[in-house]
Amino acid sequence: MRQAYIVSYDVSDPKRLRRVFKTLRGYGDHLQLSVFRCELTHRELVELRTKLDAHLHHLEDQVLFVDIGPAEGRAREAITSLGRDYTHPERHAVVIG
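The chain above was modelled as a monomer; its predicted structure follows.
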């Protein structure tokens, strides 16, 4: 079962910042400057946390994970916006043959 997470980061070094951004880009949708929405299984969550942990300086950087619920349940409606509308990205399977 996939859970939806809001992942936000504050990384002080530009080199580490790029690594964190590139890692998260492989797991979710970039919403704003340092914010991603990720739909993850428990295994993917552990994998992502492990990868991010390797890039961080633990006394200077921070990554926050906010569990907003099952990906197919309440999480689809958990994000609201002011100003420009938030649209939930549609996922499509891509078959490469």
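Helices lie at 14-25, 42-55.
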